[in-house]
Batch of 3 targets.
Target 1
Amino acid sequence: MAGGTLAGGEGGFVMSVLKNWWAVLVRGLAAIVFGIIALAWPHITITALLIIFGVYVIVIGMFSLASSVVLAREGRRWRGAVIRGVLEIAIGVVLFVWPHVTAVVLLFIIAIWALATGIIELIAAGLLVWFPVIRWVMAIAGAISIAFAIVAFASPSTGAVALSWLIGLYALFFGASLVLVAIWMKRLVKRLKGEPGALPIEVPAEEVPPVKE
């Protein structure tokens, strides 16, 4: 590792990402609550589990939209957060309008959402080259989501109880990883806040850009 600094646009982009730690924290806590409900009541009906998941995706979708507003005010890239938020809210609304589905349909809906989320998390991990810890935790979260999606697609005939356990465990691990990312992001904001000009951070030596004369 080597010391490096990010100035100007790069520094502003980094801070805009880090200052959204609260949105990441809410997503993580919501996932943990959903996971606890699924594990605490494994005999819950498919309809009830579907409604709970619908509430969950609507809540995180609203916070995605809220984070997009913050990004837009700071002149940063906000369209991705808007698209994600709209899609999540749309999924939640569809689940409320169409609650009486089979376990297989529910599993596929959550699996598709998990797969899309995992891909987004891996992309985010690839972009956060300046923060190795956050990068690795995000990568692990993405891998967990994709692994869950693969297992779900491979086991479409899972029973209701097993389905609750599978979804609950996934939600707990995924939520815990997001909470860890959020805590680390908040610590970095506190460390970097108030620094004039460039932001001193640790980056891999091979990723430090050469200084232009």
Target 2
Amino acid sequence: MKLLFGRMSTKLDSRGMTLMELIVVLAVASIIIATAGSIILSSYRIFGSIAQTNHDKLVGDSVYEFICDKIIFTYFLEIVNSQKIVLDDEKVLETSDGRLVFDGKDVYSSDFYDGMSLSMNIERYGSDGVKLHISVMRGEKQSYSTGSVVRLLNFGFPDE
């Protein structure tokens, strides 16, 4: 058996690791840690960007839905300008200072906007519809927009 495997019993070297082995292990570990740290930091930035985009979309869609719910069943609608409309019983719906205001009160708190501002553009579309467009702005940059034509079920504009 001794001939097949060379020396069968070897005495383990009890001196431990050499300095060169220690340096190689530290170099490999530092490369792995640097790579993992880079991946984690870039993932964190991407996650922050996606979360901000989703929040902007939530704000735009919520404002759009609120306005649609108010105007779709109205029996009176006057478009004062592209940022302001008057609904049933003289209730005013407008964007003022980048916020949605209904009947003189902010619809959403300042926490909801989180540094964003809103812009609404509403105009007549045919005899029984309005074209509604909502833009969400972060600073000077538009971060999200939505809009469509909303048919008015109980109201028709008089022919011009």
Target 3
Amino acid sequence: MARNLTGSQAGFPGYVAADTYYSDPATAVVPDSMHNEHLLGVIAYVLENLGAGGGGGGDALVANPLSQFAATTSAQLRGVLSDETGTGLAYFQGGDIGTPSAGVGTNLTGTAAGLTAGNVTTNANLTGPVTSTGNATAIANNAILVAMAEAKIKHSVLGITIDGGGSTITTGIKGSLEIPYDCTITSATLAADASGSIVIDVWKDTYANYPPTVADTITAAAKPTITTATKSTDATLTGWTTTLAKGDILRFNVDSVDTHKLVTLTLQVTKT
């Protein structure tokens, strides 16, 4: 039974006249004696027009999504949340980031007091000193740039210049060289002052076993050689022992020579 319905009764289905079915037309009080068919018409009318006007004009149903309401902005939604940041909670740009379990941060600012020890991935745009608690005490200013530069400077040269002092070079031992870093020989080049022929052997041994002897040759049968020319180069190094360790000693010996007065032997190496 309906009570206190307001408005005009003319739109109700089954309406005949106010004095026929309504004891009080002003308040639309439906008497108990109203026929069932007319009562059902009134109920259907009320249900049909209860939410007239679209979203926001009726009751909210828990089975329906938020689209049943009028359009809502992020700011309005944030305004009704009491715990919009934190683990498992909503996050809004401009608010605190909370404590996500995992993620990739971009343009993060603030202090790192709450971060736990772990790995840091950097790029060329990282400048200034970086400090860490638990891993390293500090990474000095420009240390990353220095490390990157050292990684790129892996190629170097070792060698000796043999000078006859204006006279033809003599045979025999001409000098020794300590290896400053672990490396691998990749080529051997000879350059002379004039056309001629020369053969140079290279011996290697540890500092503890100094001096190296012919028994310590690293060139096998492919000794650095110039034959009636001013220069030669060898990047094949057939049979060579090319691995050098920091602290090893190289000794250079002229096996034979004819007219050269000045010759430079250069060993190209790659740091390991």
